[in-house]
Amino acid sequence: DAFTASVCNLNPGARGHVRIRSARPEDAPCIQPNYLSTDEDRKVAADSLRLTRRIAAMPALARYRPQELKPGMQYCSDEDLARLAGDIGTTIFHPVGTCRMGAAGDAGAVVDARLRVHGIAALRVADASVMPTITSGNTNAPTLMIAERAAAWIVAAPG
After folding, report:
1. Is residue 119 within 8 Å of residue 132, measured between CB atoms?
2. Could you tell me how far CA 73 lies from the centroid of its own chain?
3. 3-state secondary structure of 147
4. CA–CA gap between residue 63 and residue 132 (Å, rounded)
5. Distances from the Cα of 34 to the Cα of 91, 92, 114, 149, angstroms
6. pTM surpassing 0.85?
7. Dihedral pair phi/psi, residue 140, rounded to 5°
8. 85: exposed, middle or buried (C-beta count within 10 Å: 0-12, 13-18, 19+)?
9. Residues with Cβ < 8 Å from 48, sequence gap 6 or more?
10. Which helix (H) or strand (E) holds 148?
11. Interval 34-48: pLDDT, tens
12. Dihedral angle, C-alpha 119, 15, 54, 78, nearest 10 °
């Protein structure tokens, strides 16, 4: 018998990027998530692993005799735990913000509050990429809400 404990930073400070690699549409984009690139994100990772260890050591779990496989109890420093969190970590596949919403004067914003792409008529983006920051939970429900709002705006638009 075994169990898996998983930790996830629901409010990461790191910001990555998605960039085109070339003018050829068949070339995959360059995706750089920059996981654990901030001091705060590394601290959250280390603290989360420590909390998981404390939970596994609780009397309620004693009959299961939990033993840590990864990263390994020999690792205790912030630096080791953050590095190993990066080594064993995986994405939860909820990226946001690559076409983020914001004012037309914001150089990092792609769409306005009605999901219209700045400077391009009759083009909207209606997915998780418009969220300026990630929600503290699964992105599915807010993405559905974004899609519903976009559909209503498109139906209501003249022409």
Report:
1. no
2. 27
3. helix
4. 45
5. 11, 14, 29, 31
6. no
7. -60, -55
8. buried
9. 7, 9, 85
10. helix 140-156
11. 999 999 999 999 999
12. -170
Tens digit of each residue's pLDDT (9 = 90 or more) over 75-117? 999 999 999 999 998 888 888 999 999 999 999 999 999 999 9
Amino acid at 71: P
Of all helices (H) and strands (E), which one includes residue 30?
strand 30-32
Distance CA 115, CA 149 (A): 9
Q: What percent of the chain has pLDDT over 70?
A: 99
Kindly state the tokens that stand for 7. 């930790």
> Are 50 and 81 in contact, with CB atoms under 8 Å apart?
yes
Selecting among 50, 53, 83, 94, the annotated active-site residue is 94
The answer to whether the peptide bond before residue 71 is cis (omega within 30 degrees of 0) is yes
CA dihedral 107, 109, 112, 116 (to 10 degrees): 100
94 catalytic per annotation: yes
**Whether the predicted pLDDT of 65 surpasses 80:** yes
Place of tokens 């429900």: 141
